[in-house]
């Protein structure tokens, strides 16, 4: 009878130690790891085609910018990650996801910065998300567009693209 109690006690000890090891592993070694990819594209023809080349626009002209981003993780389950795009020195015209859903910006009048907040669905097989933002430059200078992912993602994935806003010039035809 004593040997049965000893075997049961040893079995319970092994189960408890195994459970503790599994709990520690789940807490410390089962961390979600995120990565991100993003790109900025601009249109010089009112949104008919986009490229990453033209980066100088006149004040008062509408700029069409497409932002694409994708957040992946090492998990199958979808988690949500906050993504913020900030653009200084603009007046917002329109911002929409590709499905037509409107994106409402937050405007900081003191710093003259417009911020667009997105929610990216992160997963092992995450889909790329994109939106089109139309805005009008309201001040000259080099303007850094900054795309920042939340604290779950390493800051090295944050992105910046610089546009140059210049004074509008009038084309004057020469008279002969």
Structural notes for this entry:
- There is one protein chain.
- The protein has 176 residues and is of the alpha+beta class.
- The chain folds into 2 domains: 1-30; 34-166, Immunoglobulin-like (Sandwich).
- It has 1 helix and 10 strands; from the N terminus they run αββββββββββ.
- The protein has a 6-stranded mixed β-sheet, with no helix packed on it.
- A hairpin with a 4-residue loop joins strand 6 (106-108) and strand 7.
- The model is unreliable at 172-176 (pLDDT under 50).
Helix and strand layout, with pairings?
Layout: H1 2-28, E1 34-43, E2 56-58, E3 63-73, E4 79-88, E5 90-97, E6 106-108, E7 113-122, E8 129-137, E9 141-149, E10 159-166
Parallel strand pairs: 2-10
Antiparallel strand pairs: 1-3, 3-8, 4-7, 4-9, 5-8, 6-7, 9-10
CATH architecture of the largest domain: Sandwich
> Do you know the CATH topology of the largest domain?
Immunoglobulin-like
Rg over alpha carbons: 26 Å
How many helices? The count is: 1
Multimeric status of the protein? single chain
CATH class of the largest domain: Mainly Beta
**Termini separation:** 119 Å
List the uncertain runs: 172-176
The biggest sheet amounts to: 6 strands, mixed
Shape: rod-shaped
How do the strands line up in the largest sheet?
2-10-9-4-7-6
Q: Percentage of helical residues?
A: 10-25%
Query: Care to count the β-strands?
Result: 10
Q: Helix/strand/pairing class, anyone?
A: alpha+beta
SS strand fraction: over 45%
